[in-house]
Amino acid sequence: MILLVNPPVSSFAPFQNKSTYGLASLAKFLGKKFLEVAIIDDADISITIKKILEFKDKVRLIGFTGMSYQMNSAMLIAKKIKKELSDIPIVFGGPAATGLYDKLVRENYIDYVIRGEGELALSSLYRIIEINGNFGTVPSLSYFDGKIVKNNSMSQSLPASEIPLPERADMPGNGIIYDHALKADAALVIFSRGCFGRCSFCMAHNIFPGKVRFVSADRAVEYIKKIQADYNINNFIIDDDNFLYNKDFILKFCKLVKDLNIKFRINMSGSSFSKDLILKLKEVGLVKISVGVETIDPNVQKLIYKGVNMESILELTDFCRKNDILVALLFMAGLPGETKESFINNLRFISNSKPNGGFDFQLFQPHPGTFSDIKLEDYGKILTKDLDFYFSDNIVYLPKDYKDTQELVKLIEKFLKKAVTTSDVQEISLLQKYIDKKSTIIIDPSDFTGDFDNILTHWRGSERCRSGLSIIKGQNQGRLEYNFNIEKIESKKYLLAFRGASHPEGFPQGDEYSSDVSIKINDRLLWTGKFRSIHTIGHLFKFKFPAVFLKEGQNTITFEIPDESEYKNGISIFAYALNLYFRKYETGILLIPV
User: Which residues does the UniProt record annotate as the domain Radical SAM core (predicted)?
Assistant: First the structure.
């Protein structure tokens, strides 16, 4: 038996494990090779370990996949499993592992890494393990022989006819999620592999090298029909990198789905487009197109190997508006070479193009294996190499033109109204330094008295509340109370410092999703303000106050949402975030004599 593990997402990321489409596809391929496969997918590390060990008498190979923000949990799980099942080979694969293969194979609890596409390589590895054969024959395999890292030649690309379309039952929620554009639950599907682009920030061309391969239109449509029949779903998120790439596929696809009464959204390249193909797709249910633009700055485009035709984008947005098709433009912020001027120019371009489907900015992440042709430090500063923070709404790279992370945060907050986090390791280190001082009072944020009116599985007001996709709890109002002792007042002034707040997946933006909060020390008001959507994990709160707020003996800090507040959206989410940060950095809530 082969166990395939989708490890938990970093506890700092504002989302949990998502649809494991790639892992389910791999399971489908292995199953066709008459191999027994099980998928382990849980958001909790300890539960993941427990589930793996339940197969200890059957498993012959354990495979881990994941993105950068899953690698720390994957390595922790693998290390613990190796202690329990020392004779079971452990292999890593997927985007992050492909970029990190040289580091991973040197760990004594990881036996192999598969670089790139996994189907042919993993099935070959399993057969070699079973017969104790020659590992040098396994394509795309990397392993450490005790002296050097050996890298076998890359596997041939899987033929389009063999690209598996996964069993829906192998994905959480059957791979069905709520989509705002389609205004309904929709099934995620992918019908191709590869990308003709070579963007420096992306691993797609390393995972799926060579030409773009589409499954046949007949297979794609039969898959759609099966989902309709099995789940009564008529809405689809077609998540191929560039669905318009293969004209013949599109024409036959349109012919085959014209009577299925479906609605769907697609992605496409920003280099060029075909009006005829888009109109044909609209006739059979196309609702929205998302276009990866990233930046209009030609200097940045050159650094990231991104070719975008600005005139074509302007023509596309105009064409879609006139034909009642939503179009969204997707940009990146914080790219190497970006300046404040280029950030503003991107916004001007959005204003001029008027995309009727909106726009979005994702923060650049220097993922392992990307940017092999330039040295990122020449164009900015990598704030942390802790992969727990490498998710798309967190700043881990700061271009040279910004004096600090807050300058970039303020631009994003002002113009995009978007919740982002920062990984300023200097401020983290500052708090850790204070912990070593005996005069610093450290309050364990898990040691609180809470009074929460209404516990929810999501923030009040979210359209996705009914889905219950987030495990983070929130409520409409409440209070947190922390008690602590002071033996002696050490200074005339103190600093209250902590990191806080959090937001879950699908989080709507704006102050209506913030919380009015008062902070009191021994019933003296220290601060009243908002814990805003922008104040996500990584934001450092610091408040100086006179020592008269304190007393020798027992003291109390209270975080409270006043009854008269306009915004009452989740003091327990704040408590959750404090606990997360305490576990990761052992900082907690600090009272520091200054």
Answer: 181-392
